[in-house]
Structures are given as structure tokens and as C-alpha cells.
Amino acid sequence: MKTKVAFICDETNHFLVRSMVAELREAGYDVDVYPMSTNAYGFISSEHGIFIIHMDGFSSDSGKFLGALEVVMGDKKKERRLYLIGTDENLRQASSCIEQTLVTHAFRRPVNMESVLKELSIINPSYSYDGSLKIADGMAQDSSRRTILIVDDDDIYLRTIESWFTDEYNVYTAASVTSALSLLKKARTDLLLLDYEMPLLSGLDFLRILRSEPATEKIPIIFLTAKDDKEIILEILKEGPTGYLLKTTAPILLKHYIRNFFEGKEFWWKDE
After folding, report:
1. What is the pLDDT of residues 67-95, one digit of tens each?
2. Given Cys at both, which of 19, 31, 169, 188 links 5, Cβ 3.0 to 4.6 Å?
């Protein structure tokens, strides 16, 4: 049976919150997301064993929620753990609302989700951050080659496009955003080819996450997707990707576009 996690935050639809929730779910946990305005007393009879409070700020709702949650966490009949995520000031304010002996651990923002998962000790033994990462079979990494990371949840397409590029580049593939994030922490990436439609987090959410982190904000990102909807394209372009190509692009043309990109030549943002 999966451990139930209650993830409470001020902005339930914020892309960073969605990223954290996605990683928890990928690790095998049943996560429910609640706004800070939720009535905390409602958790008295719930089956949630882990409570994570992500404080984007500290408001009257934050104080009220933590004060009420003290009753929930103090129930000795159920084993529960409480984790707080916030700035130093957020955590200081929280300490005046809830007994600190009830807090299992407090994480200071900005927080590294991998560190959070390890600290929570909620990674299943069978779970690997690199479970869906793959380096092209039989290919040694060549430092003289450019490195491309392809992110797409369609395994068949992922293997197909991988085969188009292995003759010229080092190629990594990731079937999920969380796996791609793990790889980016470990390997140099010269270009990221990104699908738009993926489970849990969209390619657009992933782009925003990468642009918000100093270590990844300058990685070139080209969307490679089946989406040819004008509104979606315009929404993506507002975030400033390096380019936008369709999956229907012929392999020879796609390779030509990517080669031109690396050579600093004119790059067409979309296949007409």
C-alpha cells in the first residue's frame, strides 16, 4: 500500500510545486495537494502519514493552518511526520505557530528535491532517479562530440529519434521530466530536445523550471513535438526557447536543422 502524502502550499498550481509533487509520485507515493486555506482539523481522521508544508510566503492562513495542524500531529494514535519548506523567515514565523518537536525536518528554500527525498527516506528501494535515463547502447562518450538530451514519454519515438543522431552526437534519452532533471545534474548537455505533451509536467513547465535555476538557465532548448496549435506555439515562444520543430519533420531535415544550430547558422524555429 502506498504511503499517503499531504502536500500543502499557497499556490497549488505553481510549476515548482507541480514539479515536487511529480517527483514524489514518481517515487511511488500517493500525493494529495491542498491549499493552505484547507481546514487542518479535517486531517485528524485521514490516512496521510507524511505532511509537507511548502510556504511560498507566510500569511494569516499559514499561521492558522499550522496552529490547527498541531492537534493533528499530536495525535499519538497515528504515526505521522511533518516537514516544512520555506525561507529562514518563513521557518522562524512557523516556529511560533507549531510546537517544534512535532516538526520532523525543516528545509530552507531554494530546496533541492533530491535532498528532500533522501531526507524524507521515502524513496522505494526499487526506485532509481536514473531509471528512465539511457545512453545510446555501445557508444562511449566522446568529449569531442556535442551532447544532446532527448526528453519524450513516447518510448518508441524516443528510440527512433535517438537512432537518427547517434552517428554524430553523444545522445542521452529520458522518458520523464524528473529523470531528465537528474541527468542534467550529472552530465554536460549542449542541447535539449523537448516534447510538449508529457504526464505530470508539460514540456513548458519543464522549460520554466530550467530557466529558473542558474545551473540550467542557459541550456539551449528546442521543442520537438506533434503540437501544431497556434495558441500553444505562441505560449511556448513567450518563454523564449531556442526553437520549435514538429515531429513530422523529415529525419534528414531535422538533422540539418540541428547541425545548423550547432554551427551557429540560421535556424528555422518551426518546420513549415
Report:
1. 888 888 887 778 888 999 988 888 888 88
2. 31
Residues 6+ apart with CB under 8 A from 116: 20, 83, 85, 107
Give the distance, in angstroms, between the CA of residue 142 and the centroid of all CA atoms in the same chain. Answer: 28
State yes or no: pLDDT of 147 exceeds 60.
yes
Which alpha helices (H) appear in 121-267, and where do they start and end?
155-165, 177-184, 203-212, 230-238, 251-262
Measure the CA–CA gap between 138 and 48, rounded to whole angstroms.
Answer: 45
For residue 72, report the phi and psi dihedrals to the nearest 5 degrees. -65, -45
Can the peptide bond before residue 220 be classed as cis, meaning omega within 30 degrees of 0?
Answer: no
What is the rounded CA–CA span in Å between residue 101 and residue 122?
A: 21
Phi and psi torsions of 19, nearest 5° = -65, -45
What cell numbers appear for 80 in the block? 505521522
Q: How far is CA 131 from CA 42, 100, 153, in A?
A: 37, 37, 13
Structure-block grid coordinates of residue 259: 547541425
48-59 residue pLDDT tens = 989 999 987 777
Instruction: Answer yes or no: is pLDDT of 124 > 80.
Output: no
Whether residue 28 contacts residue 2, with contact meaning beta carbons closer than 8 Å, is answered with: yes
Residues 6 or more apart whose CB falls under 8 angstroms from that of 212 comprise 16
User: What distances in angstroms separate CA 21 from CA 94, 143, 232, one per listed residue?
Assistant: 22, 35, 24
